[in-house]
Amino acid sequence: MLLLAAAFLVAFVLLLYMVSPLISPKPLALPGAHVVFFR
């Protein structure tokens, strides 16, 4: 169960990291991507 949750978390972070340049005009670091995503 914990392994499954970790796999989902990794997939979500990778997806967020790939989508973040589409949301903002410049590539962001991961914390910046989280800020853009949650706003």
Percent helix among the residues?
over 70%
Distance between the first and last residues' Cα? 30 Å
* H/I helix tally: 2
β-sheet strand percentage: under 5%
Helix/strand-derived class? Answer: mainly alpha
Poorly predicted tracts of residues: none
Instruction: Please give the number of β-strands.
Output: 0
Shape: rod-shaped
Rg result = 11 Å
Number of domains: 1
Overall pLDDT: 72
Query: Biggest β-sheet, characterized?
Result: none
**Helix-strand sequence:** HH
Brief digest:
With 39 residues, this protein is mainly α.
Verbal overview:
This protein has 39 residues and is an all-alpha fold. 79% of the residues lie in helices and 0% in strands. It is built from 2 helices and no strands. It has helices at 2-23, 30-38. Helix 1 (2-23) packs across helix 2 (30-38). The radius of gyration is 11 Å and the shape is rod-shaped.
